[in-house]
Write a structure and sequence with these properties.
By secondary structure, this protein is an alpha/beta fold. It has one domain: 3-Layer(aba) Sandwich (Rossmann fold), CATH 3.40.50. 22% of the residues lie in helices and 20% in strands. Strands 1, 2, 3, 4, 7 and 8 form a six-stranded mixed β-sheet that branches. A two-stranded antiparallel sheet has the order 5-6. A two-stranded antiparallel sheet has the order 9-10. Strand 3 and strand 4 form a beta hairpin. The longest helix is centred in the last third of the chain and has 18 residues. The chain is globular.
Length: 200
């Protein structure tokens, strides 16, 4: 396994080092080369969320866009009046973004124009099904980045270091080729498949 996607976020408390996700990731990387990718969370604030904020994890924020990907926003007003959006930070804690969601208009009640993916839940089958019958947020943004990371690992064995790229290289090449023109506010640039693969 070369890429681990973690589409969850929070502040984890642990009773022992063996239950500490940060400790486990560091221990794993001492013996294995793989990239850990984590979703930054869906708050519209400067919040550090684990595991995306761990130094050994590539934290992924998310940008909201229209169906034509011509406008990008860091946050969006829900019908309740609350602001939904991607967790953001001033520095490189979350250095790259995926698509958080597709919406029809910015300053109107939330309306998804299309879904990134359908979930496996059947609407009405559980109390949470009404809210989680489609897949969006940074939980959807992170695997967009993880997929590109695996592609780099797969085709990148002709590039240094000898024997193929390591997780530092995979992370750095994606961040270096992100599309900052699509970023808004303090959300970092959108993952750019074409630019990244063209610059391997």
């Amino acid at each position: 396994m070369r890429v681990v996607n973690m589409s969850f976020s929070g502040k984890f408390k642990h009773w022992s080092p063996k239950l500490d996700p940060h400790w486990n990731i560091k221990q794993d990387l001492e013996n294995n080369d793989r990239l850990y990718v984590g979703s930054a969370g869906n708050e519209h604030a400067h919040l550090l969320r684990d595991p995306a904020a761990f130094p050994e994890v590539l934290g992924v924020s998310g940008l909201i866009t229209d169906k034509y990907a011509t406008q990008f926003w860091a946050e969006y007003p829900w019908e309740s009046g609350e602001i939904a959006g991607s967790n953001y930070w001033e520095d490189e804690v979350y250095p790259i973004s995926g698509i958080f969601d597709f919406v029809e208009h910015l300053n109107k009640p939330w309306k998804e124009e299309t879904w990134i993916a359908r979930s496996t839940s059947i609407e009405g089958s559980a109390p949470w099904a009404q809210s989680y019958n489609h897949f969006n947020g940074t939980s959807a943004a992170a695997p967009q980045v993880a997929a590109l990371a695996l592609t780099i690992y797969t085709i990148g064995y002709h590039i240094p270091p000898m024997g193929g790229p390591d997780w530092h290289y995979v992370q750095n090449v994606m961040v270096a080729n992100r599309d900052d023109s699509a970023a808004r506010g303090l959300i970092n640039g959108l993952v750019d498949y074409e630019a990244t693969l063209s610059n391997l």
